[in-house]
Write a structure and sequence with these properties.
Elements (H helix, E strand, L loop, with lengths): L1 E9 L12 H4 L2 E2 L4 E9 L4 H4 L2 E7 L4 E7 L2 E3 L2 E10 L12 H10 L4 E16 L5 E13 L2 E14 L2 H14 L3 E2 L4 H9 L20 H25 L4 H19 L6 H17 L1 H18 L4 H25 L6 H11 L10 H25 L3 H21 L5 H36 L5 H30 L8 H4 L2 H8 L9
Antiparallel strand pairs: 1-7, 1-10, 1-11, 2-8, 3-4, 3-8, 4-5, 5-7, 6-7, 8-9, 9-10
Helix pairs in contact: 4-11, 6-7, 6-11, 7-8, 7-13, 9-10, 9-14, 10-15, 12-13, 12-15, 13-14, 14-15
Length: 520
Amino acid sequence: MATEIELKLYCAPDDIGRVGIHPLIAAGVETGPAKRLENTYYDTPDLALHQARIALRVRKTPTELLQTVKCAAKSVAGLSTRPEWETPYAGAFDFSAVDARKVRAFLDERQASLVPVFTTSFERRTWRIDISRKIALWVMVDTGYVSSGDRVFPISEVELELVQGNPEDLLDFASALATHLPLVPHDVSKAERGYQLFLQQASCPQKALPSPLNVKHSAAEAFRILASQGMQTWQANLMGTLTAQDEEFVHQFRVSLRRLNSLLKVFKPALPGRFQGRWTKRVKALSQITGDVRDLDVMRAGILEPMLQSADLSVRQPAEAAVAALDQARHEAGEQVQQLRYGGPVLLFARDLHDLDTDDFPKNLPRFAEKQLAGLHRRAVKRLAGTLKAPTPESAHRFRIALKHLRYSCEFFAPLFDNAEMMEYAKAVAGLQDAFGFINDFHVALSRLQGWVKQDAITRETREAIAAWHTPHAQTVLADALHLAEAVMSRCQPWCTECERRGLTGIRRRIQHDIKLQLD
């Protein structure tokens, strides 16, 4: 069995030709002319191999036929480690070289029912890069397609495979490449894309997964786990933002960065100052790249679309005028998003996370979590008081940001306390956050409309008509949201162990059940 350590990088078809002439690649040795590789992937009719996360292919090269079995990879920032078994193919499958007993038995049992599912066909150029006497790697540039039936999906990627050295050496080399080339790490293999094509499944925006923490984790372990989880969500939605039409990818990309920012905030007392400061700044800058796109999409859906649906022409006309200006702004904002094609930040974060100094992290994770959550709650209450004192869109937005940090941190630490109560509380905070959302959306839209007035893209009357139509609703939303805020922020805090120490937690749980008077 060989263990394959590789890192995959997506590169748009229009840019892939630049890879071979980059100085870091040109300094290596190309192994010969490009090779055409034809691969057929096999599975059972019910896709048993796919469900077991096993890939089986037959590869046709210019000189030989090869049978390859691969198992599921553990992947972070495009860097994956997976077992594989490759042997000559003589017209029939032979799994005797698979030395993982359960995998071999699984394949032998299903050998008779294996059928072709999809194919890949691509041209591969290969370089060997000897960075030092102890570090060497292969660089492979693949261009072609995946096909299943009459459905086709392009292949345009760079693979780095470790020959000698450590996995971190791949990250360092990839980071250097992605600084100057539009390369984005991605974890989706050619086989996975083939199955998506066969099943006619599109890639979907990825939401945050439940926190996997438990009370046995140290604070350092907790941060690494949550940061790695957040990085994978960031990476998956980055690929969708760049390659898919679904606007939800942009939203979830921004959510993944906001969650990462909250993670950096809640762990600030434990993190080295340089790490915390650098990545807080970088995460904010990355989020701002997609800020205009997201704001414009929200403005269309939440501010202009309701007016466009009105039967009253005097209501529709201002919205129609604003839509024309919005379409132009959206096109320009979409061009800004292309800055994200340079995927170095994901790789750099993975490298910095690996090297993170955790000597100053506290050992008692639940106690640390309780203290940090209490601080975030106090900050949110303070922001609420500020909003009540001066109910402006700016103060409401500051309160909403405080709620986001509290909500995400509740979700991070939920398994350390009563998970159900923590998630229910986080859900209530999220509802409160959404209640204040329209206030901010309306304020941002008015600011943007004012900018269009100055640019002569719309008239002042158009802005005033839109403002007048939405203002009564905004006032009602604010009043309702403030009443909801008082109710949510005064609730018992599920991370607080004081009630448990005083014996009140058990009493509250018992009261939630039907209690009947017991008579002799």
